[in-house]
Amino acid sequence: MDILISTEKLNLPPEMLRELAACRKDSEAAVYACLQKLIDDAEKFRKFHRKRHEKALRRSIQWGAEYDAYLQKHLAAGLKLKTARTAARRDFIAAHPRPQNADDLIRSDEFPGLSAPSLRYYHRAYQTSLQSTPAE
């Protein structure tokens, strides 16, 4: 089965177009090898991209759960919601100090965002994960 593909209808980056143009003058087998390499590279990128986003979501859920624990502690102590959020944010910031020098930065894994919007994002991700998890 032969498929004719027009590269003008595809939105390809210039590097890919250069590779396709370079291998177009080769034998048919070389053209297929070139296309296979491009497809394999695209597959690797998609896999890497998906894993990176899944890891970021796992971290967001983890940090959201930690923030939620602080928030629930302050709400249980009788604080109003806005005051409890502020106190929970302070606790979260104290639990995640920023690296002081380059050695600390190299040894550390990841750092959560400490702004209020970041914490809202983590908390929302955590609450969404609770809703999407089936009850046992």
Q: How would you briefly describe this protein structure?
A:
With 136 residues, this protein is mainly alpha-helical. It is built from 5 helices and no strands.
Structure description:
This protein is an all-alpha fold. The chain has one domain. Helices cover 71% and strands 0% of the residues. α2 crosses α3.
Low-confidence stretches: none
Strand content: under 5%
Q: How many domains make up the 3D coordinates?
A: 1
**Computed structural class:** mainly alpha
Which oligomeric state applies?
single chain
Q: How many angstroms does the end-to-end distance come to?
A: 50 Å
Total DSSP E strands: 0
Order of helices and strands: HHHHH
Shape by Cα distribution: elongated
Helical stretch tally: 5
Outline the fold blueprint.
Layout: H1 14-23, H2 28-76, H3 81-95, H4 102-107, H5 116-132
Helix pairs in contact: 1-2, 2-3, 2-5
Question: Which properties best describe this structure?
Answer:
136 residues, mainly alpha, 5 helices
